[in-house]
Amino acid sequence: MTVVAAPPPPAPAAAPAAAGSAAEALVPLPQLLGLESYNPNSLLGTFLPRAVLERRGEPTHPALEDWIEIFRHSIGSFRRTAEADGSLPEAQRAVAAARFADAYLAMVNDEEQRELKEASSGGKDLRPTLGCLELCRMREQALIAAGFSDIFSDIKRTENEGALALLPGVCAELDQHTEMRDRWDAVIRGVFAGNIFDLGCAYTTDMYHSEGVSFHATRAKLLPRPWVIDDMDALLDRLCSHTYTRAVLFVDNSGADVLLGMLPFARELLRRGTEVIIAANSAPSINDITAAELEALLPQICAADPVLCKGVSTRRLQVVASGSGLPVIDLSQISPELADLAAVADLIVLEGMGRSIETNLHVRLSCDQLNVGMVKHPEVAAALGGRMLDCVCQLRCAAAAAVGGR
């Protein structure tokens, strides 16, 4: 397995003022270690211009130019989705969508030229100042400035309805596993299968619009192990031998991802006696679920499964806004409510490519930490030394984190 080493971090980015966070003052996750040097971006070592990487004798793919092109290429898809956004009068949509596209393209091009100009000076200590978090934040800022608040709203609603219909069957399937290890294995594989519903990636967006995304088919066709980061055996050992007091689950996408992947994960923790806090976005971003949207689905979730219903009614299962409005997350900037609830948590789960791979793959926490997600960008696969649709299952236990181990 090949894992990109954590690069020396640049100065942490300032807290966002408009897009990407709630209006309230944000605070660090209590378990976050090394706050002074923490930078959310995981793959910063590959965010240098190709010429710089070549001079240093380092792999030249991916490089800054490749990451910029991912976001530049996505503009067309986002523009088309914005043009269909029913929250704006039909006569205004095309103009507003064009305004977004032009503004974001200018932002991306300006950042690329700035980084390339700085690199041309040839300084040996050049460090990247741009990462996935900053590029995502710029995109949300451009959408908001153009008058859009949630361009994926209709898609999320449709996918949530479809996934809710499947939830009782998924839970019933899991209950057929009498051996705890087999059951947890099926739960974790379901998390990976759900995570394929991601409209922030060209590959999975094309898949969604051309043939749809099937939870059951994806689960059956997960890439064979070993995965690019594969702590699955250690994770199963830990889950079968240990009961956590409280777990915080940072969830990702709407639809199958949260409802058929992460909710069954939460359900199994509840069955083991663990309190579960589901941390979802405070504000919309791509097709990510928001806390408000998930809260609104709780009555239907309760009707679908008695274990989840009992968790909700006893408040052993709670949904809370994370403080973020991005498809990635800065753990030094979360909502005070989440920080209070997370203070006694002994398990933090970061789910999805944005929150667990593109950001926070190298983060150190003072409790057990699980990074779990599917690789959906070729550039991420190349940076990790893996394959497209590979899986990341990284477990760091508290003792290892405290001494700086993997």
Automatic annotation (TrEMBL):
Cofactor field: Ni(2+); Mn(2+)
Family annotation (InterPro entries): ARMT-1-like_metal-bd_sf, ARMT1-like_metal-bd, At2g17340_3_helix_bundle, Type_II_PanK
One GO MF term attached to the UniProt entry: pantothenate kinase activity
Record GO cellular component, one term: nucleus
Record domain Damage-control phosphatase ARMT1-like metal-binding: where: 111-391
GO biological process: coenzyme A biosynthetic process
Protein known as: Pantothenate kinase-like
Organism: Micractinium conductrix
